[in-house]
Write a structure and sequence with these properties.
Layout lengths: L2 E9 L6 H6 L4 E4 L12 E6 L3 H9 L4 E11 L2 E8 L7 H6 L2 E9 L2 E8 L2 H13 L3 E10 L11 H13 L10 H8 L3 H20 L13
Antiparallel strand pairs: 1-7, 1-8, 2-3, 3-5, 4-5, 6-7
Helix pairs in contact: 5-6, 5-7, 6-7
């Protein structure tokens, strides 16, 4: 099996939050991974950095992809965490990636476009995602791709247990929106406790992101526990 980690730029007016970031053109929005989120809640979390949060919220109210929102926490200097609910008109790409046996590790806007860091269990998954984008008029551009024979033994640095946890979570639909499985169900399949499963997934996702986005000089040198 060949694992793929890629950074792609996608752009389409129906991608979630696109109307909002176009309205507040200076804002930066980044997805938040919530391991404990109720899979039936329909709420998704984003970190926002804006010089005018009132303008950002005005964009949310007029964004046809957003059905509701809440400012969960404000950290100061125009930074806040929001929970949002999607409408049926929203173009949500994570289920497409999940269907292709992949996971969106990170989502961040660049103006009105979005840079996605995706992990695929094999190269054909990336091709499947590409075909979907083309067929649905989503502009897509490959920015970076890394290919590994096995994530458990290469530069990505995943341990066998971390890799197994990721694969089980993908197969169970834990990364779907909304989720098809809870963290406790993933933990049961792995035969470990829920906190242990949460730790495995968080460390695995962090290692994938670090190996995908950082240069060697920027990568942490302290070894993490498995």
């Amino acid at each position: 099996m060949t694992d793929i980690k890629a950074v792609v730029r996608v752009e389409h007016p129906d991608i979630v939050l696109t109307g909002t970031v176009c309205h507040d053109s200076g804002s930066k929005v980044k997805s938040v991974s919530e391991a404990g989120t109720d899979p039936t809640s329909g709420k998704f979390f984003y970190r926002v950095d804006s010089s005018d949060l009132c303008r950002f919220e005005e964009g949310l109210r007029n964004d046809h992809t957003i059905g509701g929102f809440e400012r969960v926490r404000e950290t100061g200097d125009g930074k806040a965490i929001y929970s949002v609910e999607y409408t049926d008109e929203a173009e949500v790409l994570s289920p497409v990636v999940s269907t292709a046996s992949g996971v969106i590790l990170d989502m961040e806007n660049e103006g009105g476009a979005w840079n996605l860091t995706v992990w695929m269990s094999e190269r054909t998954g990336l091709a499947q995602f590409w075909d979907y984008a083309r067929q649905n008029d989503v502009d897509i551009e490959l920015l970076r791709v890394n290919e590994y024979a096995s994530l458990g033994t290469t530069d990505a640095g995943l341990t066998d247990s971390q890799r197994e946890a990721l694969l089980v979570a993908v197969e169970r639909g834990y990364f779907e929106e909304p989720r098809d499985a809870t963290l406790s169900e993933v933990a049961a399949d792995l035969d470990i406790s829920q906190p242990a499963a949460s730790g495995l997934l968080r460390r695995a996702i962090k290692r994938l992101v670090v190996s995908s986005l950082l240069d060697d000089s920027e990568k942490p040198t302290t070894e993490q526990p498995p």
